[in-house]
Design brief:
CATH superfamily of the largest domain: LysM domain
Number of strands: 2
Shape: elongated
Strand order of the largest sheet: 1-2
Oligomer: single chain
Strand content: 5-15%
Largest sheet: 2 strands, antiparallel
Structural class: alpha+beta
Helix content: 40-55%
CATH class of the largest domain: Alpha Beta
Length: 93
């Protein structure tokens, strides 16, 4: 590999880490409580979103947030025992 290629890859990796960190920081603002949810047999992302969404938020946004945060494919099923990081909207005012 050339120095330019290594430099480019290093920059890309640093940018990806920075963007991921910034997203996590935004999600972890003082007004947001984060919790882990352990998937049980028969759970769907929709069911989990119904439990944890803020009352003022459209459930579709909560489903999207859960999928994005946990890098879930919207068409893939959940596995019992899988742990999901979730914004707990029940704790908001």
């Amino acid at each position: 590999m050339t120095k330019k290629t290594i430099l480019g890859l290093t920059f890309a990796a640093a940018l990806a880490i920075g963007v991921g960190y910034a997203g996590f920081q935004a999600m972890a603002s003082p007004d947001v409580k984060l919790t882990y949810y352990t998937v049980e047999k028969g759970d769907t992302v929709w069911d989990i979103a119904k439990k944890y969404r803020p009352k003022s938020e459209d459930i579709r946004q909560t489903v999207y947030d859960i999928c994005q945060t946990n890098k879930l494919n919207k068409n893939a099923g959940l596995t019992p025992g899988q742990r999901l990081l979730i914004k707990d909207g029940r704790a908001t005012k």
